[in-house]
């Protein structure tokens, strides 16, 4: 004996309208999330040249880095809406050290002039060996600027992951900025 199961589905005439309404509600929400994404702009400039003589800072083109250089990283964030608990992660090149912690070979002069702009409530700043992390408890809509200073300690062709900002409790609201390859000469 073979049993055959049969399933019959009937749908009322308004089901198509209801499905279209749900679909449009989802797409409307998706569009509003896309508009709330954060934007990042990153610029790197030389603060102190690490090389003496002809490779000094004065004779180099922009973006020509040498081991020992102190670089200022400026991150400009454009928040599209008020957000709570926002984290910004900016990766460091291999072997780089973030200045300003007060430890050995640190330079208070190199970190002078670091700027913070905007009215966000900064909660935490981490100076890790792999990335610089900045966390706001509240980040209002608008433009915000944070800067930090790092020293390049390793030479080579360095590939970095993207800089990323995201609302920690709404991971679908984020912004990423792919970073260029850094060439650091010995």
Please tell me how large the radius of gyration is. Answer: 24 Å
Mean pLDDT: 79
Profile the largest sheet: 5 strands, antiparallel
- What is the β-strand count? 13
- The gross shape turns out to be globular
Distance between the termini: 82 Å
The helix content, as a percent range, equals 10-25%
3D architecture notes:
With 186 residues, the chain is mostly beta strands. It contains two helices and 13 strands. The strands form three sheets. Strands 1, 3, 5, 6 and 9 form a five-stranded antiparallel β-sheet that branches. A hairpin with a 3-residue loop joins strand 7 (121-127) and strand 8. The protein is globular, with a radius of gyration of 24 Å. The model is unreliable at 21-36 (pLDDT under 50).
In short:
The chain has 186 residues and is mainly beta.
Please outline the helices and strands.
Layout: H1 15-35, E1 39-48, E2 65-66, E3 70-79, E4 83-91, E5 97-98, H2 108-111, E6 116-117, E7 121-127, E8 131-139, E9 142-151, E10 156-158, E11 163-167, E12 170-177, E13 182-185
Parallel strand pairs: 2-13
Antiparallel strand pairs: 1-3, 3-9, 4-8, 4-11, 5-9, 6-9, 7-8, 10-13, 11-12
Provide key terms for this protein.
186 residues, mainly beta, 5-stranded antiparallel sheet, 2 helices, 44% strand
